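Supplementary Note 3. Input sequence used for the single-chain structure prediction.
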Amino acid sequence: MTGREFLELDSPQRRLILERFKRMEILQKMFNELPKADQNLCNHGKYFLAANSSLCGLAANNLFRSILHVRKALLVSAMPMAVIPFLSTAAVYEVFVHDPLFSGQLNCEVCAVIRGGLVGAVVGGFYPIFLAIPLNASLAARYMSTPLPGKENLLRYWLTTAQPVFRKMSLGILVQALTGLYLATKQHGIYMKMLLQMNTSRDPEELPE
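The predicted structure, written as discrete structure tokens, is reproduced below.
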């Protein structure tokens, strides 16, 4: 497609883009008219999921420190395990659930709920555990708190070491998955409320095509 064709007034691509931007503007207008409770849930709900992710990171960090007998650098290991999962979970939820939903690109309720659950479980639950492994491995090697195996037995060693951590963190992972499901379900309900307001709008020009 050439640039000249794209800029033509009757170009289907141009009309599609203009309709999409118009729809996003209408959705934003409807969002601003929602009750404050709904707006807060949509704008700040991801931070609750992210805060739980930080707790999972701190818990996994403490479990690995205990298993590897690491007694030093508590603050050094705790800071990234609290901050990185928080930022990652909030960003991934924003990109894969919130933004597609409230831009009109994610209309399927099942898809939105599955995305929310996966973000909660994978990014908010499993990711902090995997993040704690290399961090505590480097601390154990630096302070020689636990003898570490050679490269040939490295995978087997960490699989064995991580098993009790995953068992103890299973409840946290489940809570994260359920929290992601809950947030996505509630936000999709709010999105459907916005669509209902659009369909019952008195101004026919604001009705989406």
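The chain is about 80% helix and 0% strand. The first helix runs from residue 3 to 7.
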